[in-house]
Amino acid sequence: AGGGAGSGPVLRGMAGTLLLVLALPVLALPLLAAAERELRFRPPAEAPVRLFTEPELARYDGQQEGQPIYLAVKGVVFDVTSGKEFYGKGAPYNALVGKDSTRGVAKMSLDPADLTHDITGLTEEELQSLDDIFNNVYKAKYPIVGYTSRRILNEDGSPNLDFKPEDQPHFNIKDEF
Predict the structure, then answer these.
(1) Distances (CA, A) of 143 to 7, 38, 105, 107, 115
(2) CATH number for the domain running over 51-163
(3) What ranges do the domains of the chain cover?
(4) What is the pLDDT of residues 71-118, one digit of tens each?
(5) The pTM is what?
(6) Which residues cross the membrane (predicted)?
């Protein structure tokens, strides 16, 4: 009789646990749905930052069919392949690609002397134009694939501790297809 009395609470305890385990999926459905929504709408993990030297960036100048087309502005390398009618071989802005063309973008110039990262001597209006085009055209429309070595490294080759990757709050990969 002693064993029977002792087994009663254990069975009731196990039955309660079994009931809880059976009820758990029903109770957890709202939590699982919320977790699934969060995962579905979470931005993708950031791609690793790729460093481009000038010779590496020059390989993406739009001259080879099937090769991505890259353009750097303010040391940020954008994949402008989806705009190949503007940046591809023989296209009107092809001179800008395969290099950091910050000055050319600021001055709205395709002069080879302006196709450089150097912004020395630009006017306030040109600097404002550069920021506007950088944010409202390139960052809004094209994915960032990396950064120029000038953006990530100091002149002596040491890491730039102030480097912060750009974000793209308005970029949506679906817009590219």
Answers:
(1) 66, 23, 18, 23, 21
(2) 3.10.120.10
(3) 51-163
(4) 999 999 999 999 999 999 999 999 999 999 999 999 999 999 999 999
(5) 0.69
(6) 14-35
